[in-house]
């Protein structure tokens, strides 16, 4: 079997689970793009793909991940996946999802491309399910990487084939989101994704920034620890850059030297 996950941290934890249970033996493959943010219009066409790539190139500028854009080739990952499925008719694919918009949007992008293999594509959506944490307490994980490897052994019982009706309905839901092309996508519950504008997180970002200059790294730490924002740091820093362009923030330091050199503060309000 081939296991599909959508986060780098999930690869390691699933590999640890496989080491505990030989029945899970198989390659772990990651879909690397975050389809919960950015443009997705005509996502399967060359023009739409290039528009998305250009957007990511801009968002990744000055970040510690500037080489990421050349490493992420999910189209080739799917091409190779389909090739393996055609060559080995006994092969199954297991798609693992946590309860978050990143995984669910990745699933929506991926699954229409595997429709020809209905019956061999299993999904494991760990939605509203209790697990035991390291201290023995019960919790409801949003991300696969939050789950202990040994807990995956009971999770595997949830594997079920993606149904024919899902292969018909879910791509329609995804194409609707692609037409809306809103910039931010949120998980409301189940597999329901709603579209929001690129500025969706701006108000909450601004609450973490004061009139006194703060290092960008400190602001990002506060956003991670004190807000309900669940999106990547690259998108958030891109929005901070946009807020500076709009005149809401002042940036100190040289972007060319990377994030660590940057300080941010609210722009003073000048009363006329």
UniProtKB/TrEMBL annotation:
The lineage of its organism: Bacteria, Pseudomonadati, Bacteroidota, Chitinophagia, Chitinophagales. This is DUF1835 domain-containing protein. Residues 157-255 form the DUF3658 domain. It holds the Pfam family DUF1835. InterPro entries: DUF1835, DUF3658. It comes from Parasediminibacterium paludis. Residues 2-124 form the DUF1835 domain. It comes from the Bacteria.
């Amino acid at each position: 079997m081939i296991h599909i996950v959508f986060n780098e941290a999930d690869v390691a934890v699933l590999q640890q689970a496989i080491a505990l249970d030989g029945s899970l033996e198989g390659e772990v493959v990651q879909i690397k793009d975050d389809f919960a943010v950015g443009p997705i219009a005509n996502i399967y066409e060359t023009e739409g793909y290039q528009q998305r790539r250009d957007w990511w190139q801009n968002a990744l500028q000055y970040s510690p991940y500037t080489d990421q854009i050349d490493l992420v080739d999910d189209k080739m990952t799917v091409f190779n996946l389909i090739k393996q499925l055609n060559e080995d008719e006994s092969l199954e694919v297991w798609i693992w999802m946590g309860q978050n918009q990143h995984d669910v949007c990745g699933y929506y992008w991926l699954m229409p491309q595997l429709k020809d293999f209905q019956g061999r594509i299993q999904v494991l959506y760990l939605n509203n399910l209790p697990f035991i944490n390291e201290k023995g307490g019960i919790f409801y994980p949003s991300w696969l990487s939050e789950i202990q490897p040994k807990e995956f052994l009971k999770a595997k019982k949830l594997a079920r084939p993606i149904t024919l009706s899902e292969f018909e309905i879910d791509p329609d839901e995804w194409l609707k989101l692609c037409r809306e092309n809103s910039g931010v996508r949120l998980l409301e519950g189940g597999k329901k994704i709603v579209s929001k504008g690129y500025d969706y997180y701006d108000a909450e970002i601004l609450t973490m920034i004061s009139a006194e200059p703060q290092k960008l790294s400190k602001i990002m730490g506060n956003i991670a620890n004190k807000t309900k924002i669940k999106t990547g740091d690259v998108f958030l820093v891109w929005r901070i850059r946009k807020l500076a362009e709009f005149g809401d923030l002042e940036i100190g330091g040289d972007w060319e030297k990377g994030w660590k050199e940057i300080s941010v503060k609210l722009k003073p309000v000048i009363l006329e």
